[in-house]
Design a protein that fits this description.
single chain; about 140 residues; alpha+beta; Alpha-Beta Plaits; 2 domains; 4 helices; about 30% strand; binds nickel (II) ion
Length: about 140
């Protein structure tokens, strides 16, 4: 952490009570860390909204591997973008369902496009892209 600045914030009492409840539920022991995390989250969000920003993230997919050629289709799509997909984790959830977590990296626009295509593939039951930061700028 760099040099610390102390700031005073005027905030509606009822709003602050709700905020305190929220952060207590999430396990924060003080407001300062919760404020810092909220600010970082917004900065990261702003960063990856720029199409050329370099981002890292994960794509989570749940699918039924019995759907005809689905596993093969998903694997082919990943090979087409091997520069952007750094690693994959595959878990056989039950007899039918698979969970896959892909670690992705690259231009924000490219990463989003790959994630959207994977998630939209017929037979994928649920998918989610989570973009985070390399942490270098925070
Ligand atoms: Ni599986």
């Amino acid at each position: 952490m760099g040099e610390l600045s102390r700031i005073g914030v005027a905030i509606d009492t009822a709003l602050l009570e709700k905020f305190d409840e929220l952060i207590a539920g999430r396990g924060y022991t003080n407001r300062s860390e919760a404020f810092r995390d909220l600010i970082r989250d917004e900065l990261i969000r702003q960063e990856w909204e720029s199409p050329d920003a370099q981002v890292v993230g994960t794509v989570t997919l749940v699918y039924d591997h019995h759907v005809r050629q689905l596993s093969e289709r998903l694997t082919n799509m990943q090979h087409d973008h091997h520069h952007n997909i750094l690693s994959t984790l595959h878990v056989h959830l039950d007899h039918d369902n698979c969970l896959e977590v892909l670690v992705v990296k690259g231009r924000s626009a490219a990463v989003r496009k790959i994630a959207e295509a994977l998630i939209a593939t017929k037979g994928v039951k649920h998918g989610r892209l989570t973009i985070t930061t390399t942490g270098a700028g925070l």
